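User: tokens in, sequence out, please.
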């Protein structure tokens, strides 16, 4: 009988032999049964210790002869004992594996009838996006009015066949990770995977469907460089495959394909926009609000939290409602009958991928509104689907304008933020030119950072050098102070034209 009370020293005793399995057994390599045995005759002190793979017949036979010679006992007794021990260890290992699987079984919350009714009622009422944003605010997400709703809808898209992805960008300490983590709290625990450190190979050892329709959260992209390639493959191809060489119990070499299926929605944070261009191309770029007004909102919230004046019960209830809303959303196909009229402005970079993101985002809004849509059925296949409305497109246009604006810009987000702050400073002080030392002092920008901004702005012809008075340093001048407003106007017009074309087509 195998005694496993001591997890690091199992014991197995027969009429003739006393065996201890030192260090227990591993559960991660079922093709072998490697153990360290301490074996002796009953009531004797002559002990033989040996590490051995009980599935390796050659090793076992050599061990049997060694034990027989050392302990002076028949080989048939030893062989029978080891066979019985192997059988006992096999059975116990399967029990351990079952316990481990039970322990790591994902948590799935079963909604009560009241919770389900409340969530569905929430989704059926009008002005859904507006009310959702209000609840996100009540849950403790301060400011970031557009970004927070955008992120929530992007996270919701994980339940569709074409999920969206996002990267939060901003300076250190501006709340990128905080925003992502707070919105992630509104997603059910069973639907998300949070990554801090993970090796690239580890991604291939998830169960085949373990990541399907999951939200993968990366706190800091800089600390997850090794997993970015498999993540990009999951984003683009919706599956990753790795080929490994494996030896079976007989020592034969075999090739095994490890496949992990998507689709997944991926979200991450970084301060270094230019480094992650490949990932940025596949994602919505959300630039954190670094304004003084946002600083004041956050600090006021911190003061209220510290003084115990926050309504924590209301925050908790808002979170739970939004999580339950996610749980009652069901997979359903979305068809956009107006897609052919939706054209992006020509000035958007990488228009093919951006166009795909735009259409997918509209679908995500329609998917979120599934309880407000009549279910229709394909006449040929019987497949169930819902349709996008003009209202969905208008709401998408309103939310996505800033994203498209950034996608159309020729400079990085950080440089753009600096340029807009610079314009504001010059207008307030009624100036047209400036010096680096003046900007460092008044806008509190580090010298190295300002040098990097100026280099990019000069290269892209946003500013130019002009000579100051005799003996003074170089001055700079903004070439076109209205260029960003004009860019926004062009995008607004293109999106407005889309709606106008749809209304014209549907009225005729």
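Assistant: Sequence out:
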């Amino acid at each position: 009988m195998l005694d496993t009370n001591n997890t690091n020293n199992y014991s197995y005793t027969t009429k003739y032999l006393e065996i201890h399995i030192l260090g227990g057994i591993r559960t991660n390599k079922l093709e072998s049964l490697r153990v360290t045995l301490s074996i002796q005759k009953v009531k004797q002190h002559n002990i033989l210790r040996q590490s051995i793979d009980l599935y390796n017949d050659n090793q076992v036979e050599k061990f049997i002869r060694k034990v027989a010679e050392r302990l002076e006992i028949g080989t048939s007794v030893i062989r029978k004992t080891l066979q019985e021990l192997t059988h006992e260890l096999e059975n116990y290992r399967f029990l351990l594996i079952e316990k481990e699987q039970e322990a790591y079984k994902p948590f799935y919350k079963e909604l009560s009838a009241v919770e389900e009714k409340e969530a569905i009622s929430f989704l059926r009422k009008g002005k859904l996006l507006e009310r959702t944003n209000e609840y996100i605010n009540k849950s403790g997400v301060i400011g970031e009015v557009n970004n927070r709703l955008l992120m929530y809808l992007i996270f919701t898209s994980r339940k569709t066949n074409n999920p969206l992805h996002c990267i939060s960008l901003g300076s250190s300490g501006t709340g990128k990770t905080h925003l992502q983590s707070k919105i992630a709290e509104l997603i059910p625990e069973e639907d998300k995977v949070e990554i801090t450190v993970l090796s690239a190979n580890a991604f291939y050892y998830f169960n085949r469907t373990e990541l399907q329709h999951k939200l993968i959260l990366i706190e800091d992209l800089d600390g997850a460089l090794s997993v970015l390639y498999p993540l990009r493959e999951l984003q683009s191809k919706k599956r990753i495959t790795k080929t490994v060489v494996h030896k079976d119990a007989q020592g034969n070499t075999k090739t095994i394909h490890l496949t992990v299926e998507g689709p997944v929605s991926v979200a991450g944070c970084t301060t270094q926009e230019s480094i992650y261009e490949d990932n940025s191309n596949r994602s919505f770029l959300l630039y954190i609000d670094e304004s003084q007004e946002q600083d004041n909102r956050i600090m006021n919230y911190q003061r209220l939290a510290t003084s115990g004046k926050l309504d924590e019960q209301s925050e908790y209830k808002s979170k739970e409602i939004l999580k339950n809303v996610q749980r009652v959303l069901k997979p359903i196909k979305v068809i956009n009958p107006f897609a052919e009229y939706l054209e992006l402005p020509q000035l958007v970079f990488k228009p093919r991928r951006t166009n795909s993101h735009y259409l997918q985002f509209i679908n995500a809004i329609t998917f979120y509104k599934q309880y407000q849509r009549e279910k229709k059925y394909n006449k040929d296949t019987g497949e169930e689907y819902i349709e996008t409305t003009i209202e969905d497109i208008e709401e998408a246009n309103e939310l996505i304008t800033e994203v498209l604006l950034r996608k159309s810009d020729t400079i990085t987000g950080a440089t753009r933020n600096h340029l807009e702050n610079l314009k504001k400073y010059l207008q307030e002080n009624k100036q047209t030119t400036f010096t680096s030392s003046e900007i460092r002092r008044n806008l509190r920008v580090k010298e190295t950072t300002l040098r990097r901004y100026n280099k990019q702005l000069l290269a892209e012809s946003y500013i130019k050098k002009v000579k100051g008075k005799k003996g003074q340093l170089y001055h700079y001048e903004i070439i076109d102070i209205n260029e960003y407003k004009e860019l926004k106007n062009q995008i607004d017009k293109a999106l407005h034209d889309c709606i106008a074309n749809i209304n014209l087509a549907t009225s005729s």
